[in-house]
Structures are given as structure tokens and as C-alpha cells.
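[Q] Does anyone have a clean C-alpha cell version of this?
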Amino acid sequence: MAGEKSLVLLDFWVSPFGQRCRIALAEKGLEYEYSEQELLGTKSDLLLRSNPVHKKIPVLLHAGRPVNESLVILNYLDEAFPASPPLLPADPYARAQARFWAAYSDKVYEVGTRLWKLKGDAHGQAKKEMAEVLANLDGELGDKAFFSGDEFGFVDVALVPFAPWLPSYEKYGEFSVKEKWPRLDAWARRCGERESVAKSLHPPEKVDEFITLLKKHYGIE
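[A] Here you go.
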């Protein structure tokens, strides 16, 4: 596809936000160069130049021009490569709903981080919020195969990278997705059967090891 070989993804191996981009690029059949970045140490000049505001990955470079933030990148890929399979539905209302739930899915990571970082009342509040977030996502999914229906799409790409983090969140939050929200659990397994997802995500054990590393980095016992 014209222009696709000028794509470079600045990313970090375990980042669920970067994995969104990797899954989207694979679903669209777009070739790109992967550039691993440092997350906890000194950040590269390329990353700092490409994202001077947040100084974070992921960043998609298209012909040298940076596009920042994972959901912005997903939208950009749909617009910049219209001949590739779309992530968003064609109907404007359905597109708006997909964007809403994709943005809402960030709460899984945000609240999950609080589960392993915080203690006491703050930890208890995080447990309550996680239950609410997962219940809302389970309710939106309903009995559909994927969030948009029968086809894997925008919300699935946005949410599924958090699936390998859920076992750790379950451990710190003392809950079970399979027991409380079996439809969401089945959805995650269904998504994991897709080649784009399987090749982009890491086993939960690797994610848990990384969380342990983060706890040591932040001095959390």
C-alpha cells in the first residue's frame, strides 16, 4: 500500500497502549518499522522530539511526521489508509459510540494501576471502581461476539491489550472476571485467537513480572 513503508512505531514491549497500535496495524495489513523505547530510564531524543508534550509512547511516525496517543493513532490509521480494512463502523452514531467506549476502556488500566499501587481506603475504592468499570464494559458487550457485533473492531482493539493485565488486577483486587463477568472473559479469549492479537500481546506472567518491576521502581512493597 502506498506510503505504508514510511511508518515507524515508537513503542515499549509491554505497553497496552502501544499494543493497540500494533494490533491495528496488523489488522490493516500495514507494514511498519518497530522502534523500542526506554520507559523507565533516559528517553531517546527521537521520542522527546516526536512527543515533546507528554514525552510518552506510543508515537506513530508517518513520513517523519508524529501522531501521538494510541486512540488518536487508531483514528488516524483509518483516515490515512482508507483502502485498508476499517476499524470504525461506517454509521456516524456507531462511530461515536465506538470512540466513547474505546476511551472508557482506559479506565481498566487507570484503576488497575491504583489496585497495585495503593493501600487502605484508596485501595478499597479502586476495587469498587474496577467492579463498576468491568460491569459497564460487560453490559455494553452483552451477548455480542465483539463490541461492534460480529466483526472485530475499534473498541476491541482498544480494550483487548488490557486482557493480560487482568490476572494481576484480579490478584490485587481479589476478584475473578470469569466468575463475575463471564461474557467479558469469553470475549477476551475470542480476541486472543486472532493472529493480530496473539502476536501483539504477552502472557499474563510477563505482565505480572513487569508490575513487580514497577513496584520496585516506585518503592512500593
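[Q] Thanks! Anything notable?
[A] The chain has a mean pLDDT of 96.
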